[in-house]
Design goal:
The chain is mainly beta. The protein contains 2 helices and 33 strands.
């Protein structure tokens, strides 16, 4: 029985491959690399994942899917699915991430898939690899879409038999780029084939998933979007309005006088409740499981500066001491570190300004409107004049390129000013005097959104659209959780 199925599968794959090459050349024309497409005789031609040419562009074309060669029902109308598993909420530079693709269909006899990883611009991103095997069930091929090369991982003729009844799973590794580059998108198409030696009667499925580069701060659920959330200092209580699942969360953790210091301290992609108690210099951190730790690190007058200073994907306990302009952090990788950078009167403005996955030492000097940056990649510091007295530093990744942008909010006029690598200098009027800036990625597109908190109301200008919205949540005196990452005074 097994040998019979294998022979039929081989015939099926050859017919499918030939049809894919023939159909692909006529449907996609010069968009495809014809030479490389015709060379992939043991699997589908490239560019059949239904991935868009440019992510988020509703008027832009998309790649075709496997129905270009497999006649049958409309995509995703069959009884099965294609699922991408293993993507973390946030990736680290050069991180090797084990992934699986599973195609399920109870009526299928053999299975196939193709997947691609791209940036929002449509460019290929990262690299796929797989373990040696004989025979090898996977391969990586190239194709050109909209003039840009894309690398696809897919099945071979040796990788079509089911893993178990009704489904097939392929295991691979995706290596992230050497720098953060914002939100990344994975698109997969799967085929549950009936193995009748023709291209008819097969079920085609499509799916997509994404991973961020750490922009989803104030995220209390699993959807990689920042949540509307506040900390109430009078009671030491955290309130969050989550979206996945849709829920209202209230957590008592802290006491009057504590300074909120939210962050992902355990590396699970979810923001942890954390406070710094100036009276004793103690940090209290509550993980997602409900357990908490208390660590004495700092003293009265220190400013908590949440960040990942050792690049391990977890927030470190860190303070900036205005009296001597020194940063202190306790990393899981390098242990205790003290770094003098800045002076009394500066405002700490930490962030990953060089996209290497490590939080950089940065201060804003209101007296001169100067930014001073000590990047982890560069042994010397740089200085940039941007802002004026009275401005609040609001460093964040507003353009989605994975780098923190130099940015200020001017309370007197309610105008945001920033300078980024992709957009240059920009200014946006959004807010008024007395507002608390609370920038975060509320729409989950990998870009930080403009947001302010005003007497119990969040006003958000989302970059996905763009769209404007307001949400009543909290009350006067509350502190938006997103502002716990930036210096407010």
């Amino acid at each position: 029985m097994f040998n019979s199925i294998s022979k039929i599968a081989a015939v099926k794959v050859l017919i499918v491959a030939a049809a894919a090459v023939f159909t692909g050349l006529f449907l996609l024309g010069p968009v495809l690399d014809v030479e490389k497409a015709s060379a992939s005789a043991s699997g589908p031609s490239p560019s059949f994942t239904a991935a868009p040419y440019i992510v988020g562009c509703p008027d832009c074309p998309t790649e075709n899917n496997c129905t270009a060669c497999h006649s049958g029902a409309a995509p995703n109308s069959g009884p099965g699915s294609v699922v991408i598993s293993g993507l973390p909420a946030n990736y680290l530079p050069n991180q090797q991430i084990p992934l699986t693709v599973t195609v399920s269909d109870p009526n299928a006899v053999i299975y196939g898939f193709q997947m691609v990883a791209i940036k929002s611009s449509g460019d290929n991103i990262g690299t796929f690899s797989f373990a040696p095997a004989n025979p090898q069930p996977l391969q990586v091929i190239s194709g050109f879409v909209n003039g840009k090369e894309r690398r696809y991982i897919e099945h071979t003729s040796s990788g079509v038999t089911p893993t178990q009844f009704g489904s097939k799973t392929w295991n691979m590794t995706w290596t992230a780029p050497a720098e953060r580059v914002g939100k990344l998108h994975f698109y997969a198409a799967g085929n549950g084939a009936n193995s009748d030696s023709s291209t008819s009667g097969d079920n085609i499925y499509t799916s997509s998933d994404s991973t961020l580069s750490g922009t989803a701060i104030a995220n209390f659920d699993t959807d990689s979007r920042s949540d509307v959330s506040v900390y109430r200092p009078s009671f030491g209580t955290w309130y969050a309005l989550t979206t996945s699942p849709a829920s209202f969360i209230a957590t008592q953790f802290g006491e009057p006088g504590d300074i909120p210091a939210p962050g992902d301290y355990d590396g699970d992609g979810i923001t942890d409740n954390a406070v710094f108690r100036p009276s004793s210099g103690t940090w209290y951190v509550r993980s997602g499981g409900g357990s908490y730790t208390a660590t004495q690190f700092g003293q009265t007058g220190d400013v908590p500066v949440p960040g990942d200073y050792d690049g391990d994907g977890k927030n470190d306990l860190a303070v900036w001491r205005p009296s001597n302009g020194t940063w202190y952090f306790l990393g899981a990788v390098g242990g205790f570190v003290a770094r003098q950078f800045g002076q009394d009167g500066d405002k700490p403005a930490q962030g990953d300004f060089d996209a290497d996955g490590v939080t950089d030492f940065v201060v804003f000097r209101p007296s001169s409107g100067m930014w001073y940056l000590q990047l982890s990649k560069v042994p010397t510091f740089s200085a940039t004049q941007f802002g004026q007295a009275g401005d609040l530093p609001v460093p964040a990744d507003f353009d989605g390129d994975g780098k923190t942008d130099i940015s200020v909010f001017r309370p007197s006029t309610g105008i945001w000013y920033r300078i980024s690598a992709t957009e240059g200098f920009t200014s946006y009027p959004f807010g008024q005097d007395g507002d608390i800036p609370a920038p975060a990625d509320y729409d989950g597109d990998g870009k930080t959104d403009l947001a302010v908190f005003r007497s119990g109301i969040f006003y958000i200008f989302g970059s996905d659209g763009p769209t404007f919205g307001s949400t009543s949540f909290g009350q006067a005196g509350d502190i938006p959780v997103a502002s716990g990452y930036i210096q407010q005074q």
